[in-house]
User: Fold this.
Amino acid sequence: MSGSLVQYFPGQTFFHRLDPRAKLVFLIFVSVAIFAIQNLYLSFFILVVMVFLWWRANLPISIVWGFLKALLPVFIFLFIVQAILYPGETILIYPLIPRFVPLIGGIGRITLQGILFAVLLMFRLLAMVILLPLVSMTTPVHLLALGLVRIGLPYRFAYTTTAALNMVPILQGEIGVIVDAQKLRAMRTFEKGKFWEKLRSYPALVTPLVIGAMRRAQSMAVAMDSRAFGAMKTRTYIEDINLKWFDWVFIAVTTILSIGVIVLAAML
Amino acid sequence: MTTPAIQLIDVSYRYPRSKNTVIRGINLTVEPGEFLAIMGENGAGKSTLCRILNGIIPHSIGGQLKGKVKIAGLNTREANIAQLSTKVGIVLDDPETQLFTTSVRSEVAFGPENLNVDPEEIYQRIQWSLDVVRLTGYEDRMPSALSGGQKQRLAIAAALAMKPEILILDEATSQVDPLGVVEVLSVVKELNEKYGMTIVMTTDQSEEIAKLADRVIVLDKGRLIAEGTPRQVFADAELFSHHMIRAPQVSQLGVQLKEAGYPLPVFPITIEEAARGIVEILSDKSSHNSLGDNIVVTPLSSFRPNEPPIIQVDNLNYIYQPHNVHAVMNVSFSVPRGEFMAIIGQNGSGKTTVLKNLLGLLRPTSGRVTVAGLNTSRAAVADMARHVGFVLQNPDQQLFAETVEEEIAFGPRNLGLSENEVRERVEEVLSIVDLQELRNEFPPALSKGERAKVVIASALALDPQIIVLDEPTTGQDYKGCHQIMQIARALNQTGHTVVFVTHHMALVAEYARRVIVMRGGQILLDGSTEEIFSQIEIVRQAHIIPPQITELGQYLPESLGLPRTPLSVDQMARAIITRLNGKINS
Assistant:
């Protein structure tokens, strides 16, 4: 089983060795930049940087393909909607319905601006879905938790959050098994069903998933409590994290570049 | 006088928001260095008792705890979790929920870190505890990438790093394969013998308990109903028949011989003792005439090569992507209609992968699988499901409905049957699995054994000709195991083909007619159950431990003329009794 988007992917790359705090800074600034920027070229630039970092971090490129495949229906939908409805100037294909018809007149016209806007949305979405695993897959959970603690969060909170992150791959696997179990009961929807039918069958997954997650959470709580989790106000850490010179450089570059790009986008 | 490791005085307990008292008036004293085994059916209160012993009850889980619990002199109600965690370590059944960090090192460090132990000291403890569980050199590995036995040994190391005086193992071997069980138990044994650690263990591995435990207690509905040395407890036929406490097979044999009027001189709890006893009573009457010829060993109905194959697997290969794991290599076999077959082997030997290829949950990387005339690389799983009732391992992931009835009706409805036909099928399978009384219950709220039955019933409702069970008995107690296998046997007798995977070799020996042994993705052996278990040396290569009764058959001198490969206690007992009756008559 792979394709778990948050599971730690061991490695010794530059990105792996960065301090979790530096990566948290990176996560925040880049998210803001992705949200703020509406410019096609700048968004493409961010996406390229994300893919470049992904490649440098030695993460499997197949996962990015997986994202692309999963998001493809959304992209196509957006593409069509934007291309047809976006009020652009440069008309590529003339409307099916002449402009002078009231209300629906002009619909069906495809403009260059519409297409470009759809492409922009795709770049931003893709950059966003790469960003989170780029951080979570290169940072061991306990160090991520420690990063949060050092930033000033209480350790119980930090660990519970990261434990939840740990559950994601487990739940993903669980969904796979439950879908299999439903197929085995002659449920055709997931194999041959239409999109809407599939959507309608998802609630049936919820009961076993929730019950399973609750059982798991309970026994995990027993296991953690048995090892004195939260028994004292503070705790020690065998692996400490230190901001080294390259962390500072990385933080500086991330900050300057993100702000720079946002400012640039605002000026254009 | 030393302080007892554990002292319970009249302890009763009720979970929060529950009316049931799950522990009732238990009194128990455990001395330091003692090895105590707790046995009992699922739901008897074993796990609850463990949680009371380590203070999780009442500190983390509330509820109503009555009586006095003293652990190494500390009253658990007054002491805090931090203090208690340095007295008692616990290892639970599910490796996935008790390991939560991303490296072996940080997993072991987690506990002492919580106790504010100095990092330098923690490093020493990591080294020591990994050494004890033999995981030195694994520090940087991810726990999720370890084998089942390794994961449980890591859980032990994590508990040891808190420097406890008592180690509790709550069904810690129930989810690992036989090799894992051996690994875990050898570590536990060493802890008890070499380090003098007090051990409390809930398990139904009675053969091992017989060798390891100083004392066994038996729980039933929250009460302590029996207590004694393994020999005393396993000799109690009542416990076995009424409370379904699985005694070692040699002890079951001892009980049967005793009831037939031929008690062994020493009641056996190990193979060696049983063998010694049997040799003694058989040669006792120093009869010279060999009666070997007169012994009627019930011939085992061997498998049925004459029937047309309903499952045909030719050169199956399966490679898991993206890591390119070649899980199944050139596997070929065919299963005639009406077969009752087991596939056995270590975890990771490819058993489940083969099963999943039988109906398209996985599609062959190469090779051909034909089931009920359909090529499984093309057919939809939902179509295959009419022919093959496949029951996955964990019942909880296969229950979607609000009542048992609705659960069973789920499949037939998907087939588009009329409401009348659906009702009919529901009634039919409810009676097969004997769940009529529970038809309106919420499936996830049923007991583990009942949940398994609901899942089997749901598969049966599609009226398949083939039943495939993937580890149906994992986590089930003795009663549950046999109920499930009895259902399978009944189905087989009405013409269904049954294929199952399990780690319980006693069940394989008792129920299967044919066995395929897998190792490293390939078939190591394929033959009748008796043939397979008679080749004990080869079977061991696949890290399979044959049933104890079979080992006894091989251990006994051949000159006794007893079955060399007995598959059940009954078979062996009959052979010995026939032999003794013959002697008396002559």
In short: Residues 1-6+20-139+242-268 of chain A form one domain. Strands of chain A lie at 91-93, 110-111.
